[in-house]
TrEMBL record:
Pfam families: LigB
Required cofactor(s): Zn(2+)
Organism whose genome encodes this protein: Nocardioides bruguierae
PANTHER family: 4,5-DOPA DIOXYGENASE EXTRADIOL-LIKE PROTEIN
Record-given protein name: Dioxygenase
Family in the record: Belongs to the DODA-type extradiol aromatic ring-opening dioxygenase family.
Record InterPro entries: Extradiol_dOase_DODA, Xdiol_dOase_suB
Source organism, top-level taxon: Bacteria
Length: 271
């Protein structure tokens, strides 16, 4: 494995945070409220040297890394054809891929998928946050849904933050699509979505990672909020990458309860 690293001379003056964001769906690109919130969030951050993103839409074991300079993945249906023409061609991220592979534990096999581009859980929010597409972006698969293992992966990735790498977990704090009846962006949130959102917001405010990890057993609104857990799992990579997983982060979006198609927009930044 090569010893290439991100050049620290071009890294930000302060450590990059780690983020957990809700990525919505392609129509997020046309939502003036949420898109403005994501753009403002990016403006408040130090400029990343590179971005490592873990999306709910890539579940693959062993841990796998995306390729650079390949087409986007349009992993959705039923939306306006214009979304299938979206482009987001970012610079080569192979240096970051080498670093990520070298940081994993000896028993953590790392593969590279040489033809896989960014899926919509990555390119939709990043297209809003960094529209110039001039920052290298590497996507990493979710190799497990075990919170403890994901926390350890995030912890191993933590040193990248000192080299200017923005670590992003991209999911949705509630994602009970089978139980939604109204798919308008302004739809009223179901009770299970509001209850789970409130519970998670309180746990985040207290920095209670153990409580967040016990969601299947203790969270109100389950299993409706997450009939499958892939949109919640990226949170634990973010929490693992935090300087101190027990320190409350900043709930940058949705701190007072905001919903999109009835799903929670609550998003987190950890130092």
């Amino acid at each position: 494995m090569t010893s290439q690293t991100i050049d620290p001379q071009t890294a930000p003056e302060r450590r990059m945070p780690a983020l957990f964001i809700g990525h919505g769906a392609p129509p997020l690109l046309d939502d003036p409220v949420w898109s403005a919130q994501l753009k403002a969030w990016a403006r408040d951050l130090p400029r990343p040297k590179a971005i490592l993103i873990v999306s709910a839409h890539w579940e693959s074991a062993p841990l796998t890394l995306s390729a650079s300079n390949v087409p986007l993945i349009y992993d959705f249906g039923g939306f306006d054809p214009k979304y299938f023409r979206e482009q987001y061609a970012t610079p080569d991220a192979s240096v970051l891929a080498y670093q990520v592979a070298a940081m994993m534990a000896d028993n953590e096999t790392v593969h590279q998928h040489r033809s896989r581009g960014l899926d919509h859980g990555a390119w939709v929010p990043l297209k809003l946050m960094y529209p110039e597409a001039d920052i290298p972006v590497l996507q990493m698969s979710l190799p497990t849904h075990d919170p403890e293992r994901l926390l350890k992966i995030g912890e191993r990735l933590r040193p990248l933050r000192d080299e200017g790498v923005l670590i992003v977990g991209s999911g949705f704090l509630t994602h009970g699509l089978p139980f939604l009846r109204d798919f308008r962006i302004e739809a009223k949130a179901p009770g299970w979505s509001k209850e789970f959102d409130s519970w998670a917001g309180e746990a985040m405010a207290q920095g209670d990672v153990d409580e967040l990890a016990r969601f299947k057993d203790v969270a109100p609104g389950m299993p409706y909020a997450h009939p499958t857990v892939e949109h919640y799992s990226p949170l634990f990579v973010t929490l693992g990458a935090a300087s101190d997983a027990g320190t409350p982060g900043e709930q940058v979006i949705g701190s007072t309860g905001e919903f999109w198609m009835g799903l929670s927009k609550r998003s987190l930044q950890v130092a």
